[in-house]
Design brief:
single chain; 105 residues; alpha+beta; four-stranded mixed sheet; 3 helices; MJ0683-like; iron-sulfur; Radical SAM protein
């Protein structure tokens, strides 16, 4: 018998969602990925984990605003946050895929 710990996670999440955090509006999105192969100054690690994009603080000295995908997002830095609502499922999928790969080699 297989126990599915996450079968009702979507319903549970949608009932308890926040719409704002501080001044920032929260948007929930489906994402294709959550892990990114580490490069540059993060090279000592295998991956970086990105469960959301945006920011709820908007510090004027922050470098992260430059990574926003549009000029509108850069100009409104600190006023928006995109949460990858399928982050847990993506990690589980990635883990299963890489466990199988290691077993078959």
């Amino acid at each position: 018998m297989t126990l599915d710990l996450f079968s009702d996670i979507e319903n549970e999440q949608s009932e308890n969602r926040k719409k704002k955090i501080g001044q920032a509006d929260i948007q929930y999105v489906q994402s294709a990925s959550i892990l990114t192969e580490a490069k540059g100054f993060m090279e000592a690690y295998d991956y970086t984990l990105n469960p959301y994009s945006g920011c709820s603080f908007g510090c004027n000295y922050c470098y992260a605003a430059f990574f926003a995908r549009s000029s509108d997002e850069r100009e409104n830095w600190g006023n928006w946050l995109k949460v990858k609502e399928n982050a847990l499922q993506l990690l589980i999928k990635w883990r299963k895929k890489h466990s199988l790969t290691k077993q078959s080699t």
